[in-house]
Amino acid sequence: MNLHEYQGKEILSSFGVRVQRGIVATTVDEAFKAAQEMTDKTGTNWWVVKAQIHAGGRGKGGGVKLAKSLDEVKEKASEIIGMNLITPQTSKEGKKVHQVFIAEDMYYPGETEVEEFYMSVLLDRGKGKNIIVYSTEGGMDIETVAEKTPERIFTEEIDPAVGLQSFQARKIAFNLGLSGAAFKDMVKFVDSLYKAYIESDATLFEINPVLKTSDNKIAAVDAKVSIDDNSLFRHPDYLKLRDVREEDPTEVEAGEAGLNFVKLDGNVGCMVNGAGLAMATMDIIKLSGGNPANFLDVGGTADAERVEKAFRIILKDESVKAILVNIFGGIVRCDRVAQGILDAYKNMGDSIKVPIIVRLQGTNAEIAKKMIDDSGLKVFSAITLEDAANEVTKALA
């Protein structure tokens, strides 16, 4: 589950990480009041107006603006709220901005001793270790830094069973070229950041930039945070932070129906039971000359209601030219799955305008194939993976 910048900063702050303070606003008037409140709290006379969407690179798309007066706060907020913000991490349509973060300006006028760093914490699944990635080149796309100056990117591996050691935090501060008070504050920053990552069950904490102010304080000026969905039962308070407006509406609908669905850019819809079989099915589609339009796992049950819901979700994608149903009948019998498919097809009537290829293997697979073959509907049965691939090829011809 991805979070907005202001939400990620709230979590960081709760673990003792110094952050750029601010107030979220959904209207221009709220933005104006937030700026006044920030002045009262922090004494800032300049404010940063930041679009809140689940994507990076907001500044490049005009989603981050500096306001040097209260009137400018209203002006910048009116420009950003409601805009479709296009960044390198959004689609070409962009994302609509529903709210802005009115933040204190931490780059004091005339200040020349500030430094910007990059830092992130994530899991290296191959090594089974947590990794802190950091660089002296903050405020830039880390991908660009990795491509042009890879020697400026450092990594620190952390054994989850042992945790972050003091010498590792000191090593990070040293590699960033810090000394004195800034060195000590960075050690504290790294320790608190890693603690936030572990105890919030996050999959990613990315801070770009981490700022060293002229008075040698270290603070998170940005925060990109993702929480492991599987851990939310331990964090009911985090579940309230979910913003479904930032998610694909089809994926949200599928989740509400209990379906595991991920939209992809392809032309063949998939309906499968089991994640492993779903991955194999997508391979079949690629080998047959098509591209998977989605990942959809219907789970252990495939009755008519569930199948119909899955069909309707897949067919919302106008690029789908065929649907491949690949079910292994272990827990559920193949003939029941076949009946569910046929009932769903009849219920949907003329809304199904693409061929459906059904491969059923397992208990009563022969009976299921006969049911489909005798139905008279535009549903084609397959027994082997090769048969299914051949039917997909025909459907796309």
Keywords:
Rossmann fold, D-amino Acid Aminotransferase, Chain A, domain 1, 3 domains, 18 strands, Dna Ligase, domain 1, 4-stranded antiparallel beta sheet, elongated, 397 residues, 13 helices, 6-stranded antiparallel beta sheet
Task: Give a concise summary.
The protein has 397 residues and is of the alpha+beta class. 37% of the residues lie in helices and 24% in strands.
CATH architecture level-2 label of the largest domain: 2-Layer Sandwich
Helix tally? 13
Shape: elongated
Number of domains: 3
CA radius of gyration is 26 Å
Q: Please give the CATH class of the largest domain.
A: Alpha Beta
Major beta sheet summary: 6 strands, antiparallel
CATH superfamily of the largest domain: ATP-grasp fold, B domain
Euclidean distance between termini CA atoms: 39 Å
Q: Please estimate the helix content.
A: 25-40%
* Average residue-wise pLDDT: 90
What is the total tally of β strands? Answer: 18
CATH topology of the largest domain: D-amino Acid Aminotransferase, Chain A, domain 1
Our estimate of the beta-strand percent is 15-25%
Q: In terms of per-residue confidence, which ranges show pLDDT below 50 for 5 or more consecutive residues?
A: none
Structural class of the helix and strand makeup? alpha+beta
